[in-house]
Amino acid sequence: MLREYLQTGHLPIGVDIGGGGARLLQLRKVKGAYTVVAAARVDLGVKADEMDVEERRQSLFEGLKRKIIGAGFVGRQCFVAADDSLLRVRSVRQPQMPREETDRAIRLEGSERLGFDAGETAEIGWVRAGEIHQGDDLRDELIVVGAKAPELERLVDDVCELGLRPLAVEPGFLACGRTFSRAYRRASDSNVVRMVVDVGARTTGVVILRGCDVVFYKSLPMGGARLTEAAAEQLDMKPETIAELRRQRMLNVEQDGARKHDSRADRAIYDAVRPLLEEMAGEVALCLRYYMVTFRGSPPERALIVGGHAREPGLKEAIGEALHADTEIGRPLEGIDTSCASLAMDRRGDLAEWSVAAGLSLRGDSSQTADIAPDAAGPATQQRRDGQTTRTPRREAA
User: Fold this and answer.
1) Which pairs with CB-CB distance under 8 Å and at least 24 residues apart come from 342-350?
2) 3-state SS class at 366
């Protein structure tokens, strides 16, 4: 079936499920050029904070059912990124060994390393981050990812209920890394370092790329919802009001990240969230320090901020100052024709919130798979490819 997509140039749909909403995007590749075929999004907004997990899930997928009708998606195959809240991620060090032995060791020890209980069924995957020196020994640093199998099965079932056919579930940070690796696939790019900071509703993911490989990832427990909460408390205003003011402020950020105006309300919100922006920037700087000490690597040539809250005024400046690096809002669809799809905003903008969905669709392009993304931890039948775990969801859409 995937071959049929590639013959027409249509790639599978990327389904990015996040804490505050979801984004679906499909690409087409013809003669080496990419075009957005269709896109759809659901944003739960501040009301998501008032819902429990089940209410949020139902609201999200009911919204998606309405949005994908008539959106123009071609075919049913898709790749899915799970909400970060479902994932456990840890960097571990292993003696250097063949991929098959590494995979066997991670499967035996991964659940315990990630803190799953002995009776829990978990799906475990891994990606090799790089080689490190530990004393006189050389060891491999691995990024180990796991999730509870029943939660992934529920996610796959929900996506199938949309009429889609999931091919795999993948951690969103790998898809995000793939998006920003399209232009770094030459041998001369293998040591070019970039950092991507993905600011979501509830979490912020810090990804460090070297060449086209993900070499570091950490999820920080702070995002747009925490900024809204802090400003609402400081200014004694309703969270809904603050969320709308923050949305307007982010819309008023120009393409270069500068604010167009500085009203009293704008300044009041900035003063309320500035401590959190500085805290976030400090945590991002600690991630970079870990990478540079662990891999004895060079600093990033630049840092990119993406995600639904990337345009928060003052965030780019805070991160740039903490990293002492050029920092800008990322453009995941740069070089991709977006004229044929509705992306719910000015197509001339940065479209920073589409990084993960685009990377998921790109996974269907054989020239964009590489070693950056092990096939994901979805419930299912297991296969092997280069020592990495491939799983195919049990359930397919009728």
Assistant:
1) 342/39, 343/36, 343/39, 344/39, 344/41, 348/255, 349/255, 350/255, 350/310, 350/311
2) helix
Using CB atoms within 10 Å of the CB of residue 134, give its burial: 0 to 12 exposed, 13 to 18 middle, 19+ buried: exposed
d(CA 228, CA 272): 9
Q: Name the architecture of domain 1-180+333-398.
A: 2-Layer Sandwich (3.30)
Tell me if 1-180+333-398 shares its fold with 188-329.
yes
What does the buried/exposed string (b/e) look like for 274-302 if buried means 16 or more CB atoms within 10 Å of the residue's CB?
Answer: eebbbebbebbbebbeebbebbebeebeb
Quick one: the chain helix, strand, coil %, rounded to 5? 40, 30, 30
User: Which amino acid, one-letter code, is at 302?
Assistant: R
Q: Which of 199, 187, 143, 183 is nearest to 311 (CA)?
A: 199
pLDDT for residue 261: 52
Helix (H) or strand (E) holding 112: helix 99-113
Which residues contact residue 378 at a Cβ distance below 8 angstroms, ignoring those fewer than 6 apart? 80, 123, 152, 156, 166, 168, 169, 391, 392, 393
Domain 188-329 = CATH 3.30.420.40:
yes
For residue 32, what pLDDT is reported?
85
Q: Do 15 and 159 meet the contact criterion of CB atoms below 8 Å apart? A: yes
Tell me the pLDDT tens digit for each residue of 274-311: 999 999 999 999 999 999 999 988 899 999 999 999 99
Q: How many residues are recorded in the chain?
A: 398
33-43 vs 137-148, strand pairing mode: unpaired
Cα–Cα nearest to 346, from 205, 250, 204, 260: 250
Residue 391's pLDDT is what?
Answer: 40
Those residues whose C-beta lies under 8 Å from the C-beta of residue 109, and which sit 6 or more positions away, are none
**Domain extents for the chain?**
1-180+333-398, 188-329
Once rounded to an integer, what is the mean pLDDT over residues 119-132?
A: 91
DSSP reduced 3-state for 208: strand
CA diameter of the chain: 60
**CA dist 397 → 37, 188, 317 (Å):** 22, 43, 46
Phi-psi region of 215 (alpha: psi -120 to 50; beta: other; left: phi over 0): alpha
- Per-residue DSSP letters for 226-290? HHHHHHHHHHT--HHHHHHHHHHHHHTB-TTS-BS---HHHHHHHHHHHHHHHHHHHHHHHHHHH
